[in-house]
Structure prediction request, 620 residues.
Amino acid sequence: MATKIIIDTDPGVDDTIAICMALRSPEVQVLGLTSVFGNVKGEVTAQNALRLVELEGHGDIPVARGSDLPLFSRFEMDGAVVHGEDGMGNTHPPTPRGKVIERTAAQFIVDTVRANPGEMTLLAIGPLTNLALALRLDPGIAGLVKEVVVMGGAAACPGNMTPVAEANIWHDAHAADTVMAAGWPLVLVGLDVTQKTVMSAQFRQELFRADNAAVRFIEKIIPCYVQFADTVYRMDGGIYTHDPSAMAYIIRPDLFSTRSAPVFVETEGRCIGQTVADWQHQWEARPEVKVCLDVDSAGVLALIRERLTR
Amino acid sequence: MPKKIIIDTDPGVDDTIAICVALRSPEVQVIGLTSVFGNAPGEVTAQNALRLVELEGHGDIPVARGSDVPLVFPLERLGTWVHGEDGMGNTHPPAPRGKLVDQTAAEFIIDTVRANPGEVILVPVGPLTNLGLALRLDPGIAGLVKEVVIMGGAVACPGNMTPVSEANIYHDPHAADMVMAAGWPLTIVGLDVTHKTMMTTQFQQELFKADNPAVRLIEKILPCYKNYFNGAFGLNGAIYTHDPSALAYVIRPELFETQSVPVFVETAGRCVGQTVADWHHQWEERPEVKVCLGVDSPGVLALIKERLTK
Prediction:
């Protein structure tokens, strides 16, 4: 039985790779995409989500548009400098044929979880606003999902948005803290592992030898993202493997080492958006989540290549 | 020429070890102690500072009493559950003979630095309130001290007061942030190294074979402190080497590996008191400080033993 997943996403260049992987993996069945602001504005990510399901003939998969804003704080800065103004590396792809469904992302999540009790895996690879809203609409879903896999956070390494905060968590720290506290079976796939897995220029060259709609699309949108990594991290053509790592976790959790701890998200001060793992239980009690601390990077890269090239 | 140092201290069990090491080291000349609240209330730490200079005949060294409360926050929990109600492991030693000088700690620091331009090393091993006050009273001292060596902070490891903050910094985060921003030559000797250097029960037994007032006092006051470490960290009678590590740095800096980086202290939210190293210069500009990240632990322990037993 394939794992039923909803991908909550702000596409986004690395979101695109993760979604293409998901749609090409027999281990998972994508029941829907929910979009959220983040890498770019909400109206743009919703359209991109539609484009991505249509890219290789999955236009029947519902796309629900989610929040344009964080729960509580201001939407200060999107990731357009990383992902392009259109979230697609400034390639301005044509308008999608399909339409977003007549439900909000949060309601779609609630309804789908209720309709598939104990079966849904939520893969969240953007700010966690939609998940927090879903928990507020129906707290009961926390006991009904199979798993929540989040690309986000930095538990034992520096952040990428600030010295302590990773971008997805930073974009909506209050929502993220709600999601960490919810008591559902949650896994954090954060910078602790995503920055250990680098898609080098050589890796991409090999990838681009394949000829299919997914690979051609990724090849087209990726230069903007690579350029950012070069400028900011001086990565010599390499890029970190953020969202695809979370997708890889769903297919092959054995590639990751995890440790369980309560995780808190700072919602104030200059450390806002920091994911603090309370390893020694110094703060108030909170259900533990799994934090990925190490990864078989070669295994993750092989999986990504295999899925995108076959 | 011995290095002229002022030890700003909240004695305190490990303060006691550090001060005894300093007073027995020919490389340093202790030209004053300044006291501060922290491990015990301000009136208690001031009396303990007097006791410690008198312990081995240094009653001529001036002791100036400093702040009883943090700069901004109300006084919270003190360290008496670690160091005893009297800061001396609940041994209640007799009243000191001497008196405090007729100056506040902050004024004493300013006057001494001004009288010895370019020569004074400040060694704060408690909350940084007195240094914060001294900087506000006379910002010019930042350019006149030789060095500031702090026991405090946790840059790349968890905290001991909260998951992210070390006790000395946590007790007065606003003062600590001023001290980090002041632009003076500053070194942080924090949990990154003090937790790597353990005084085991065997080390303690060997130490206690010596017979002098310093060792006899340390032997007497240590059980309370060990109990705390056993209960909180399961250290089996061993203790971390906090304040003595800062003194070891003053005497033998080559025992430590440091890296330079701007350091910020969180003053809000649940991460209050966290010392954040901004490795990638993501926040506003701030002068770099040296952060101790590696230590020759056997070297530090050998130095402490040699100084206390000779």
About this structure: Chain A has a mean pLDDT of 96.
